[in-house]
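Cross-posted from the bioinformatics board.
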Amino acid sequence: MKILVTGGAGFIGSNFVRYMLSKYPDVNIINLDALTYAGNLENLAGIDDRRHMFIRGDISSVEDVETVFKKHPVDTVVNFAAESHVDRSLHFGTQIFIKTNISGTQVLLDISRHYGVKRFVQISTDEVYGSLGSSGKFTEKSIIQPNNPYAATKASADFMVRAAGKSHGLNTVITRCSNNFGPYQFPEKLIPLMTANALENKDLPVYGDGMHVRDWIYVVDHCSAIDLVMRYAEDGSIYNIGSDHDVPNLEIVKLILKILGKPDTLIKHVLDRPGHDRRYAMDSSKIRKDLGWKPAYSFEEAMNKTVDWYLNNRPWLEHIRSGEYVKYYDTLYRDRLPVSGKYFPRN
Ligand code: NAD
Ligand code: TYD
């Protein structure tokens, strides 16, 4: 199997590369990644394997993508490459999200078709469904109604993938997964950010009342689900992926503090995110029934492993949390500062 993984120097992509190389002796991976702020060659450290080749390139550049396909036979594409952070899409402009997440996906689709790719796997997200009320779960039939620019670009990409299948016969599948956590996650996302701040005894900035619910899945369980979908799903199908562990953010943050033996007084409620989706929860019965998938890790085990990983990989964290990251953190969180322990819901 010859797989083109895009975004394979990011969080989930690098975990997927490791998962596939260790599971299958006959797999060959071309890893195409632009190395944006979120791409990090340190995420691929220790992969010394002739079955893995890293190429720096941009999925929205026809030239970059064509060069890969001209030089390397590819039978499967797994598209992880994306601008992936909601807060950046809200505060730093949407242009780069449109370029990578929509145009980049379209470039990959067109060139995949031209070169006779047998299967195109689009890594999408539960965020395309928008927000849930106090009950129910997202199924694959839920309405697509994204509420933030990141989610809107991911939803647009899903529609382009669908159109490539319907109009041009490209063999496509889409996975929509809930919030991931695990090793190598960029510390702009909730779990690594709170872990890193707690390690340095810094404030933990919880948006609003902290009662927003996310459905957390260990990244390795996401990778095993993608592997099954890639191999066995029907052409044109869509699969939700989730671990049935939907809990409020505050509970996650308190658990991190407990694992690290730090006090809850580090928690600071700060100004809420605009358009902040209140609740995500995934119904993943389709993938469980059709493909026999289930998560291999309990939430508690996975959280302990994850926090341990950040504890034991301080240099990885420190390299990221210097330079540009300091500016990012300051710009984004400066205006959110709490005043005398109060939080500010947005109207
Ligand atoms: P990430 O931000 O950690 O990594 C994204 C990677 O894509 C980086 O290595 C970056 O350099 C690369 N990239 C960005 N723009 C590129 C471009 N134009 N060309 C080539 N490479 C480019 O993201 P992640 O958390 O690993 O997410 C991977 C995918 O999974 C994304 O498509 C995201 O929407 C989806 N997803 C993420 C989650 C989650 O909880 N993190 C949940 C569901 C779905
Ligand atoms: P995040 O990890 O950014 O993922 P997503 O927005 O894709 O769900 O955020 C997860 C939840 O944590 C979300 O409800 C926003 C919240 N959050 C905070 O409360 N404080 C923070 O500093 C961050 C980054 C997120």
